[in-house]
Amino acid sequence: MTKPAKRTQKDKIGIYIKRQAWILFILIIVAWTIDTIWLHSELTVAKSTAIGALLSFLTQAVFAFFIFWYTGYRARQHIVSQLYRGQMAKWLLTVFGFALIFITVQPLSAPALFIGFMVMQISHSWMLWHIR
């Protein structure tokens, strides 16, 4: 009998990103279903929720990319600097993403946009709590 291979932190993050993609997909389907059956807003709510969730997903993926650019004990100084760069890139993308969405996407439901974003943020925090 062979031992299962030990998962590295990069592997765990890869699994986490796949799970986040599934949550994104499920959130879009739920928003579409609620919009179609109950709200009848010509998919404005579903579209807004999906855009907010996608913005959150993309900013988290960029952050993960920055953090795991370097790995290993010898790269610890680079990892710390990448943590700051990743956080800065994430926040800049979030601010400019929201600005771009509000300027270009019409019609838009702002509450649905923020709900989609926040659901993904909460799921991100919940998954990170489980990874640790």
3D structure, described in words:
This protein folds into two domains: 12-73; 77-131. 80% of the residues lie in helices and 0% in strands. It has helices at residues 9-39, 44-67, 76-104, 110-131. Helix 2 packs antiparallel against helix 3 (76-104). The relative contact order is 0.17. The mean pLDDT is 85.
Q: Main traits of this protein?
A:
Putative ATP synthase protein, subunit I, single chain, 2 domains, transmembrane, mainly alpha, 132 residues, 80% helix, cell membrane, membrane
Distance between the first and last residues' Cα: 28 Å
How many independent structural domains?
Answer: 2
Strand content: under 5%
> What is the number of helical segments per DSSP (H or I, 4+ residues)?
4
Which sheet architecture does the biggest sheet show?
Answer: none
What is the average of the pLDDT values?
Answer: 85
User: How many DSSP-defined strands?
Assistant: 0
Order of helices and strands: HHHH
Decide which structural class fits the backbone: mainly alpha
